[in-house]
Amino acid sequence: MAMALLRDLESLRAWRETVGGDDLGLIPTMGALHEGHLNLVRPARRTHQQVIVSIFVNPRQFGPHEDYDRYPRPEAQDLALLEKEGVDAVFLPSVAAMYPPDYQTSVVVGAIANQLCGHFRPGHFDAVATVVLKLFTLTQPTAAYFGEKDYQQLHVVRQMVQDFNLPLRVVGVPTVREDDGLAQSSRNLYLTPAQRQQAAAIPQTLQSVAAQLQAGIPPAIACQQGVDRLLAAGYASVDYLELRDANSLAAVAPTEKLASGQYRLLTAARLGAPPQQTRLIDNLPLSL
Ligand code: PAF
After folding, report:
1. Catalytic positions, written as ranges
2. For the chain, what are the domain ranges?
3. Average pLDDT over residues 183-198
4. Residue 61 three-state SS
5. Which of 16, 41, 74, 140 is most buried, by CB atoms within 10 Å?
6. Mean per-residue pLDDT for 144-167?
7. Residues above pLDDT 90, as percent of the chain
8. Which architecture, in CATH terms, is 4-173?
9. Whether the CB of 33 sits within 6 Å of ligand 1
10. pLDDT in the model for residue 257
């Protein structure tokens, strides 16, 4: 069967009716697809009778000086990749369809959304939660797939699904990396060749901070050394580099040796100068 292209809510609803009670996997994306996205599609394809991918660059999750206008939108290329993966349907709504002029309702997420990236991007995770909730209610999936590269986003979505008792499973999928360790991201397309070289300092730094933490260096010292290393590698600024509890995202005691447990080391750092600045995020699991 040919892959269905659903460009409005009516065609999505009609397609959803035809698949009826079939087990359905949803992969929400903003397009500019890479191996990281296809790595979400593949387990969904193996698991579900039907797989739908949404491509929607959600304007509400971009801040006023962020990259909404320049966000890449290679639609034909994206559709060719999805067709090759055997996706059943792609939902590509317009902004007007998702947010008609009389649109008024938003999800407001609690503390989990106002730290780390949320501190530097106020309102970002509320907008993500809102659009994801709309995608869930429109597509009614059995399961939805999210990359661990956006680790805080994965937690925000899990929290919303739990709080609203949404009848679906959230599946987190490990990050896909380039040969030099850089996490795959649509925003890597912004990097100049020189910045692309510098960018690899993020995974290298996370690895070295993780090794220091494993050796018993207190988090505050290990993380500060990581920030210094990123700045020395050419990053213009580091929004944060922090160790958190892997499950709750709670902060850890900064000056004490770590107790055994599951942790996550997370960072966001910026390359270049505004308005062409690129903000990259990454994270690494740490088990002690
Ligand atoms: O991770 C993304 O691409 C977006 O934040 C998402 C989940 C598709 C919501 O717009």
Report:
1. 37
2. 4-173, 186-287
3. 96
4. helix
5. 41
6. 98
7. 96
8. 3-Layer(aba) Sandwich (3.40)
9. no
10. 81
